[in-house]
Design a protein that fits this description.
This protein is 47% helix and 9% strand. It has 4 helices and 2 strands. It is mostly helical. It has a domain at 37-111.
Protein backbone atom coordinates (compact mmCIF):
# COMPACT_ATOMS: atom_id res chain seq x y z
CA UNK A 1 0.00 0.00 0.00
CA UNK A 2 1.46 3.40 -0.95
CA UNK A 3 2.34 5.71 1.96
CA UNK A 4 -0.19 8.36 0.88
CA UNK A 5 -2.94 5.74 0.82
CA UNK A 6 -1.96 4.51 4.26
CA UNK A 7 -2.19 8.05 5.63
CA UNK A 8 -5.61 8.54 4.12
CA UNK A 9 -6.82 5.31 5.71
CA UNK A 10 -5.54 6.42 9.11
CA UNK A 11 -7.33 9.77 8.73
CA UNK A 12 -10.52 8.02 7.70
CA UNK A 13 -10.32 5.67 10.69
CA UNK A 14 -9.68 8.64 13.00
CA UNK A 15 -12.71 10.47 11.62
CA UNK A 16 -14.94 7.47 12.19
CA UNK A 17 -13.58 7.05 15.70
CA UNK A 18 -14.47 10.65 16.52
CA UNK A 19 -17.90 10.08 14.97
CA UNK A 20 -18.53 7.03 17.14
CA UNK A 21 -17.47 8.87 20.29
CA UNK A 22 -19.41 12.06 19.57
CA UNK A 23 -22.34 10.95 17.40
CA UNK A 24 -24.91 12.58 19.65
CA UNK A 25 -23.11 15.93 19.73
CA UNK A 26 -23.79 19.00 17.61
CA UNK A 27 -21.35 18.28 14.83
CA UNK A 28 -21.16 15.90 11.92
CA UNK A 29 -18.18 14.22 10.33
CA UNK A 30 -18.04 13.60 6.60
CA UNK A 31 -15.16 13.15 4.21
CA UNK A 32 -14.61 13.74 0.52
CA UNK A 33 -12.15 11.54 -1.32
CA UNK A 34 -11.59 13.05 -4.77
CA UNK A 35 -10.06 11.19 -7.67
CA UNK A 36 -8.21 13.06 -10.42
CA UNK A 37 -9.27 16.72 -10.61
CA UNK A 38 -8.74 19.17 -13.47
CA UNK A 39 -5.72 20.94 -11.95
CA UNK A 40 -2.08 21.40 -12.88
CA UNK A 41 -1.20 18.58 -10.51
CA UNK A 42 -3.08 15.90 -12.47
CA UNK A 43 -1.72 17.09 -15.81
CA UNK A 44 1.85 17.10 -14.46
CA UNK A 45 1.31 13.53 -13.27
CA UNK A 46 -0.21 12.45 -16.60
CA UNK A 47 2.63 14.06 -18.57
CA UNK A 48 5.22 12.31 -16.40
CA UNK A 49 3.49 8.98 -16.82
CA UNK A 50 3.17 9.59 -20.58
CA UNK A 51 6.90 10.24 -20.80
CA UNK A 52 7.63 7.06 -18.81
CA UNK A 53 5.26 4.90 -20.87
CA UNK A 54 5.44 6.42 -24.35
CA UNK A 55 8.72 8.33 -24.30
CA UNK A 56 7.00 11.71 -24.76
CA UNK A 57 4.77 14.00 -22.68
CA UNK A 58 2.68 14.81 -25.76
CA UNK A 59 0.54 11.67 -25.46
CA UNK A 60 -0.80 12.43 -21.95
CA UNK A 61 -4.37 12.83 -23.25
CA UNK A 62 -4.37 9.16 -24.21
CA UNK A 63 -4.10 8.36 -20.51
CA UNK A 64 -7.26 10.35 -19.79
CA UNK A 65 -9.10 8.03 -22.15
CA UNK A 66 -8.51 5.30 -19.57
CA UNK A 67 -10.70 7.12 -17.03
CA UNK A 68 -14.29 5.82 -17.00
CA UNK A 69 -15.62 9.27 -17.98
CA UNK A 70 -12.61 10.02 -20.20
CA UNK A 71 -11.63 13.11 -18.17
CA UNK A 72 -10.68 14.25 -14.68
CA UNK A 73 -13.33 15.89 -12.50
CA UNK A 74 -14.02 19.58 -12.89
CA UNK A 75 -13.14 21.44 -9.68
CA UNK A 76 -16.78 22.48 -9.18
CA UNK A 77 -17.88 18.83 -9.24
CA UNK A 78 -15.93 18.29 -6.02
CA UNK A 79 -16.53 21.68 -4.39
CA UNK A 80 -20.28 21.55 -5.05
CA UNK A 81 -20.43 18.34 -3.03
CA UNK A 82 -18.45 19.94 -0.19
CA UNK A 83 -20.77 22.97 -0.13
CA UNK A 84 -23.80 20.65 -0.05
CA UNK A 85 -22.33 18.55 2.76
CA UNK A 86 -21.67 21.69 4.80
CA UNK A 87 -25.22 22.96 4.28
CA UNK A 88 -28.36 22.40 6.36
CA UNK A 89 -29.74 20.36 3.44
CA UNK A 90 -27.26 17.63 4.35
CA UNK A 91 -27.94 17.85 8.08
CA UNK A 92 -28.57 14.12 8.50
CA UNK A 93 -25.38 13.09 6.72
CA UNK A 94 -22.61 11.96 9.05
CA UNK A 95 -20.01 9.27 9.48
CA UNK A 96 -19.31 8.62 5.82
CA UNK A 97 -16.80 9.36 3.08
CA UNK A 98 -17.86 10.32 -0.42
CA UNK A 99 -15.65 9.24 -3.29
CA UNK A 100 -15.81 11.58 -6.29
CA UNK A 101 -13.78 9.82 -8.96
CA UNK A 102 -16.05 9.26 -11.94
CA UNK A 103 -16.18 5.53 -11.31
CA UNK A 104 -12.45 4.86 -10.98
CA UNK A 105 -12.81 3.13 -7.60
CA UNK A 106 -15.18 0.60 -9.15
CA UNK A 107 -12.40 -0.46 -11.52
CA UNK A 108 -9.11 -1.98 -10.45
CA UNK A 109 -6.69 0.49 -12.02
CA UNK A 110 -7.02 2.97 -14.83
CA UNK A 111 -3.43 4.14 -15.21
Amino acid sequence: MPAWESGRTENEDHGFGVERQNGARDFRIVGVNPGPVDTDRIYNMLKKRSKDWFGTEDRYKELQDRYPLKRPAHVHEVTDLIVFLASYRSGYTSGTIFTVDGGIASRRSVI
